[in-house]
Design goal:
The chain is of the alpha+beta class and 195 residues long. It is built from four helices and ten strands; from the N terminus they run E-E-E-H-E-H-E-E-E-E-E-H-E-H.
């Protein structure tokens, strides 16, 4: 079973995270940031990943450290759970509508961290959540998952819908990329022989 357990403790956050890539979409999320809880719950559901996250962070300052560090931990968990990446499809993409928003995401589990992010989020906040933290979350994720991730907003005017569409789209792209291709189950999907 492709699973990972991550514990990260700093002066700013204390995070425990578990991930099962071959799950059913069950989640238990308690980050101290309600909007992030919502995003991670739907990420788990749409990716069919079993995910637990517990975080005690310095949210009395703001949500920055919590959001960034959870992105780091989730990326580490994907990297650990994928191990040598033998048999995976490697690539995934999803064009996802969320009401008036339309989000395209594409991922390559390449071993190289790169984020191509093109979102036009019209407000600075959704509730108490700073919308600029969306980029911080995905930067933490890609650097530690060691993947290339492109996210493009093709339409959208509601900040909540744009961000929610992003998390759903990326979850479904990752679901496709981590899936085992039975025809190549014993192969690393690279001419280099390593990812």
């Amino acid at each position: 079973m492709r699973t990972a357990k991550i514990h990260r403790q700093t002066a700013e956050t204390n995070i425990a995270l578990t991930l099962n890539l071959d799950g059913s979409g069950k989640s238990e999320i308690q980050t101290g940031c309600g909007f992030l809880d919502h995003m991670l719950t739907l990420f788990s559901k749409h990716g069919r990943f079993d995910l637990t996250v517990s975080c005690k962070g310095d949210t009395y300052v703001d949500d920055h450290h919590t959001v960034e560090d959870i992105g780091i931990c989730l990326g580490q968990a994907f990297c650990d759970a994928l191990s040598d990446k033998k048999g995976i499809r490697r690539y995934g993409n999803m064009l996802l509508p969320m009401d008036e928003s339309l989000i395209l995401s594409a991922v390559d589990l390449s071993g190289r961290g790169y984020l191509g992010l093109a979102l036009q989020i019209p407000t600075e906040k959704v509730g108490t959540f700073d919308t600029e933290l969306v980029e911080e979350f995905w930067l933490g994720f890609i650097r530690n998952a060691q993947c290339t991730l492109h996210i493009r907003q093709l339409a959208g005017s509601n900040s909540h819908h744009i961000i929610e569409g992003t998390f759903k789209s990326v979850a479904r792209s990752l679901k496709e990329a981590v899936a085992i291709d039975d025809a190549f189950a014993d192969e690393i999907p690279s001419t280099k022989g390593v990812l």
